[in-house]
Task: inverse folding
């Protein structure tokens, strides 16, 4: 049983910063890829930033240079540092974990509950 809990969302003015966090807990054997997605009203969910199993972080062009994804505690904790925020960054942000609960099992994708980020003056 795996649970993902997100935090850090809120209201911020353009040019401001926020730091999102997501922690996975429960039965976890190994964690593969992790990432952050966002979904604005009327739009599809899109990838913001991700760290693959054995690669470096990658970012959407719209956030590159402004956002930074990082992990700690063997990838069980995920962060998204968001700087120079723009109104178009307004969305619900979701953390994503691709992980195995037990040895030999298929990897599964888990989603956080989502946290609202609103950038407005």
Result:
């Amino acid at each position: 049983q795996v649970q993902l809990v997100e935090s850090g969302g809120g209201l911020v003015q353009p040019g401001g910063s926020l730091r999102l966090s997501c922690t996975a807990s429960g039965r976890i054997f190994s964690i593969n890829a992790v990432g952050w997605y966002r979904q604005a009203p009327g739009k599809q969910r899109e990838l913001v930033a991700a760290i693959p199993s054995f690669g470096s972080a990658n970012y959407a062009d719209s956030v590159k240079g402004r956002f930074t994804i990082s992990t700690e505690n063997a990838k069980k904790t995920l962060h998204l540092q968001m700087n120079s925020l723009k109104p178009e960054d307004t969305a619900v942000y979701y953390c994503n974990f691709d992980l195995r609960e037990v040895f030999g099992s298929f990897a599964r994708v888990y989603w956080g509950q989502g946290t609202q980020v609103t950038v407005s003056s």
The first strand starts at residue 2 and ends at 7.
